[in-house]
Amino acid sequence: MYSEKAKKNADACRFCWMCRHLCPVQLVTGKETNTPRAKGLQVSMEERGFQMDAAAAKTMYECLLCGSCTNDCVTGFEPPVFIREGRSQAIVNDLAPDCVLRVVEKEQKTGNIYGEEKCKVNLQGVPEKGDTLVWLGATARYSVPETAEALLSLFKKAGVNVAVLANEPASGSALGDLMGFVEDVRTEAKKAGEAIAASGAKKLVVLDSYDAALFRHEYKDWGVELPEVVTATTFVDELVKAGKLTPKQEKQMVTYHDGSRLARDLDEHQPARDLLAAMGCELHEMFLNRRLSRCCGSAVFGQYMPELRTQIAQNRWKDAQRTEAKLLVAACPQSTEAFSSTVPDGYQYMDLFVMLNKQC
Ligand code: SF4
Ligand code: SF4
Questions:
Q1: Residue 65's pLDDT is what?
Q2: Which one of 17, 19, 66, 85 would you pick to mutate in the ligand 2 pocket, going by the greatest count of ligand atoms within 8 A of its CB?
Q3: Domain 4-96, CATH
Q4: Do residues 273 and 256 make contact, with C-beta atoms less than 8 angstroms apart?
Q5: 23 lines ligand 2 (CB under 6 A)
Q6: CATH tag, 247-359
Q7: Which of 28, 185, 276, 316 fits a disulfide with 281 by CB distance 3.0 to 4.6 angstroms?
Q8: How many Cβ atoms are within 10 Å of 359's Cβ, its own excluded?
Q9: pTM for this predicted structure
Q10: Angle, helices 270-278/232-241, rounded to nearest 10 degrees
Q11: Can you tell me the mean pLDDT for 321-344?
Q12: pLDDT digits (tens, 9 = 90+) for 154-194
């Protein structure tokens, strides 16, 4: 059963088809079922007696939950709301694709979608308690540790004492994307909230935008208390503006990719651009920037549909290639994971914090 909110969203469409050209998954697959509206129609059909089958369940997973469709819809139609619920139905009815179930199993066994037991970030000498706790997230800890190490190095250079949990638990963001916001996800959130509270932190600096969006929105809805939540981009930008970090000026042309959750769920666009300006960069914007940004493919999606995630990241590279810049920069570890494995010939990718750390 879908919630009233999901049903209302699924029935809200006015068939203007303005969303049709926006979906990064549909653009790559060319499948009509991957238009945001078609997913809404599927939910409406299910509400009218159509039984979800394995193919319909798979369709629900061919989505990045990126919110590009929501951003442009005149009716305020929000596909991620009912797509998440569609995933809950798929799991409950034993219809979720095997590739998804394998990732769910890894996440539930190890607390991360990579199935890794040991954090790859060097946390030697970093305390676990303190006023400022840095939340690294699973992608930085297990897939692209250089992003977390660059961030921690910047704090050291700025003279800011930070804490990191050696055994950072899952935030619930990955499981929430895989299963919808079911009880298991709220249990993860509660445990993460307790671990954060035990650190004594008054401020939570969050590196991964997927975690930051969940902390800011769903944790509040679920009654999980957190200290002040600040994105890593905002926090580091404030350090530069306060004169605690002084990057070397290197005049180079760059283009910047706005990660979906940072740009749309958190509505944050400027701090990363200000950091690039502080490094002397000449910014060449992609046509789809800020709230209009096109998703590069999430880490969760990369785990269960890796070939499709590669094509989606390559498609975003094409947007970058339409600018004059040869260097693409992004600020979320999940973007770094997607872009760094798909760099076209003659181009370069850099994580924002890695770049800043090199210039400080
Ligand atoms: S933009 Fe909104 S109203 Fe228009 S077709 Fe898409 S979902 Fe329907
Ligand atoms: S949330 Fe993103 S990937 Fe999913 S239907 Fe909307 S535009 Fe497509």
A1: 97
A2: 66
A3: 1.10.1060.10
A4: yes
A5: yes
A6: 3.40.50
A7: 276
A8: 16
A9: 0.96
A10: 40
A11: 98
A12: 999 999 999 999 999 999 999 999 999 999 999 999 999 99
